[in-house]
Amino acid sequence: xxxxxxxxxxxxxxxxxxxxxxxxxxxxxxxxxxxxxxxxxxxxxxxxxxxxxxxxxxxxxxxxxxxxxxxxxxxxxxxxxxxxxxxxxxxxxxxxxxxxxxxxxxxxxxxxxxxxxxxxxxxxxxxxxxxxxxxxxxxxxxxxxxxxxxxxxxxxxxxxxxxxxxxxxxxxxxxxxxxxxxxxxxxxxxxxxxxxxxxxxxxxxxxxxxxxxxxxxxxxxxxxxxxxxxxxxxxxxxxxxxxxxxx
Length: 247
Fold this sequence. Notes:
Elements: H1 3-21, E1 25-29, H2 34-46, E2 51-55, H3 62-75, E3 79-81, H4 85-94, H5 107-128, E4 130-133, H6 138-143, H7 164-174, H8 178-181, H9 195-199, H10 203-210, H11 216-228
Parallel strand pairs: 1-2, 1-4, 2-3
């Protein structure tokens, strides 16, 4: 991959999408991971004066928060930091959640975090007439490894054709700090849990699958995940028309 040419292509594409939508710029979440850092630099290159990085900690790992701040400084991003702990805790309490009773790997609560962040992103998108840029890459989209109407609720996915190793190569080209590039990928919704720990395989193995060279057991594991998450990649279904609807 020619990372310099890919970066230029994606910057041009972001500009074209904003112009086609009649929007004014770009807003995105900055998690402290390599994907969001790459998206941040692309958005800044596309719209130096009209981009906004939102750092949205919700009971977050302190390392993630430090890395998000590092990305802002290293990549010269316009950013806001908004702590959503109190909103998350009040909302969860209103839903009848007792944090004392909920397990450490409580999926509905984890997804609630992602959906609150999506709401914050669209507030600012609406406020400034910006488009929301997502950070999902081809590896994650293949698995449906995102929260429906959470981090999957976006307008643009510039990394959608790039596997994780290509995102890292692009990060090096764009000046993302090495500590962020080398960091173990993690969704940041469960403390201490990496993507590999949750999935049961790493991104290198997933890339082998995408290239048709993985073992049978791993292939079955990946394809089972794809089937289970296929609904995330579809628009909402409509029933077939009925003759009773004739007008």
